[in-house]
Design brief:
Order of helices and strands of chain A: HHHEHEHEHEEHEHEHEHEHEHEE
Radius of gyration of chain A: 25 Å
Strand order of the largest sheet of chain A: 2-1-3-4-5-11
Helix content of chain A: 25-40%
Largest sheet of chain A: 6 strands, parallel
Oligomer: homodimer
Number of strands of chain A: 12
Chain lengths: 344, 344
DNA sequence: TTACAATGATTTAACGATAAATTTTTTCAA
DNA sequence: TTGAAAAAATTTATCGTTAAATCATTGTAA
């Protein structure tokens, strides 16, 4: 007990004299004592650690995830929180696994790009605070951090239009993803605003991978062969765009001279493709940091989602809307966009 | 107790009847009981979790780290181990932090590319098993997984020589790193074997970043201006190579027509530069998996480094050499190498 | 019937740290 | 010198789980 007070600063009523204090410190030094975090956690009912659940694709390095993770690690280091990464392969298949992770090893969880059903949402343990990032479903009883997908898509398509493009392909993400739907909406809004008719033939949905980008653009060029020939491609992610670039290269189309290409995300990928991609920056790192900030507040009980309304005399009532934050995107101009080529 | 036996399979002498068993299961279901991993860990003195310490550069995404981490996550999922990532910014400055991580929250540690002094090595807690990957120092009382840096460098430089190159720049890594020294040695061995005199003027040491690659190649071209003009560059990493490619592009040198470039690592980077890099593949993922395998054996006491020699009658004595495994590299041929250009 | 398994249920102690309560010792004013 | 407050030291109970021991049934063979 004395040791606990001296070395770990336990807040007991125990008092200890200078002499004893010194003796304890000395003994601890000699034995190179180190507090057992597990026992400490059990006693305090707080492990000072947070969990991150993410579907890291085992087959391919997931840059998207890593940028967010870096933000999380950064911020949790500041708060002296230990970060545990729970890696799953599929949100649907691994539901049981996710529940298992909530075993009081961590005090709260950050879910990166979860893909939930409302039923599963119900099953999440009530005592664990959750923060979601890039969720495809607005989680109940959780704090959601999202990005303005619609606005981001709108702004980059608008940028293409401002450069003179009017025939713009969209290599979309899987259309069961809310994110993908919003990006498509942004694309359509920009077109509508410029009085460009929406042509479903120019939109093709694949998945988030460069392989998919490659095959979709190839199908577009070789099978669909839209007329008049498009002068730009809006890809739903940088990864898709990188595959798209390969496909265009194979088709002997130069970027941006013959055709312009833009991505979405601004991961490392966008900087190292050739040409580097004009894209929409998602503030992954910032969101990761914010996720930790919010989660810690939830753990400390400073944010209570179950109690959306505060006593009326408190001024600004924290309402249910606060359980969601939307981050703005930013247009990043690089070299993959040029003016449209005159008709071939 | 009964619940513990029924639900968690505790190996107590406690016996439970069919009826009680059913009642417990039902109650657990109703309460959606989930074992408290912390209490379990305290009692069993095993958390079923491993820690990974890595210096993730906060400023830039670290692909190198991620590939290894993916292997680790993959394998630890197989063994139902929880993986905690401890991120530090500097191995020297954060020594205290590293010691703090050994707080029995994890049963063992994997160190990715640690940079240790012998004194610090001494301070590592004896009760925690350590496995190092890509260490720049052979850790005592730990299991070291390394890659054949010398051989890898040798093979790729030899490949350049076989293509006809004789004037080969080496953009080296920081020379306080064992790894960098070994790669330089491999470079020299390949040259020596082909009777090419070593020219210190062609070697320039920077650090592992594309910025450094850019500035080193630029200095080489604009300041040192070696004669006869080199026809190839051996970069100590893919990241360096990517910067080098930029520098060459700026200098209006085409790769591989005017000059060939090779890297080391075969991270994602090597696949997406333009042209894609011929490089040396490090089996990151495999090493990550192996690290977990070894660590788990150490935790279970199946590998005991303190006891390198087994009783003589046991056949193959596990000797101290077993505390180290060296992985072979593999040459990956892509598009960044061509025959040397005739003298300009 | 007694004895003795076999079976089921309950209790105790431990993991290491902590909070609070209790006991012991010291200090100092009356 | 006494006595009460202050300081120091010690004890007890708890966190949730587990291992082993003890206790209480039941059934079965002699």
């Amino acid at each position: 007990m004395t040791a606990s007070v001296v070395l770990n600063g336990a807040t007991s009523s125990t008092r200890v004299s200078q002499a004893t204090h010194a003796r304890v410190v000395e003994a601890a030094e000699k034995l190179s004592y180190r507090r057992n975090a597990v026992a400490h956690g059990l006693s305090r009912r707080r492990m000072e650690s947070i969990g991150v659940v993410a579907a890291i694709d085992f087959g391919e390095v997931n840059l998207y995830f890593l940028e967010g993770l870096n933000g999380i690690l950064e911020e949790s280091a500041v708060h002296e929180q230990i970060t545990t990464v729970y890696s799953i392969s599929d949100w649907q298949k691994d539901e049981q696994k996710i529940l298992q992770f909530c075993d009081s090893r961590v005090d709260g969880m950050i879910l990166i790009a979860p893909y939930f059903t409302a039923e599963f949402n119900e099953k999440l343990p009530k005592h664990t605070p959750f923060v979601s990032m890039h969720s495809n479903y607005i989680l109940q009883n959780s704090y959601n951090l999202s990005v303005d997908n619609e606005g981001g898509a709108y702004s980059i398509v608008r940028h293409l239009i401002e450069q003179g493009h009017r025939r713009i392909i969209h290599l979309a993400a899987p259309d069961n993803l809310l994110e993908a739907q919003l990006r498509l909406q942004g694309y359509r809004r920009a077109l509508a605003e410029a009085n460009i008719a929406y042509d479903a033939n120019l939109v093709i949905a694949g998945e988030y991978s460069s392989r998919s980008g490659y095959s979709c653009i190839t199908e577009m060029l070789q099978v669909r062969m839209p007329q008049p020939f498009p002068t730009a491609v809006f890809c739903a992610s940088d990864t898709i765009a990188s595959g798209c670039l390969d496909g265009l290269y194979n088709a002997n189309l130069r970027v941006p001279e013959d055709i312009s290409v833009v991505g979405f995300d601004d991961t490392l990928m966008a900087r190292i493709t050739s040409p580097p991609l004009t894209t929409v920056r998602q503030p992954f790192r910032k969101m990761g940091r914010r996720a930790v900030e919010v989660l810690i507040k939830m753990i400390r009980g400073e944010i209570d989602l179950a109690q959306p309304e505060q006593p009326s005399d408190r001024g600004t009532p924290a309402d249910a809307e606060n359980a969601m934050e939307i981050f703005q995107t930013e247009l990043v101009l690089r070299k993959s966009v040029g003016p449209p080529k005159r008709e071939v």
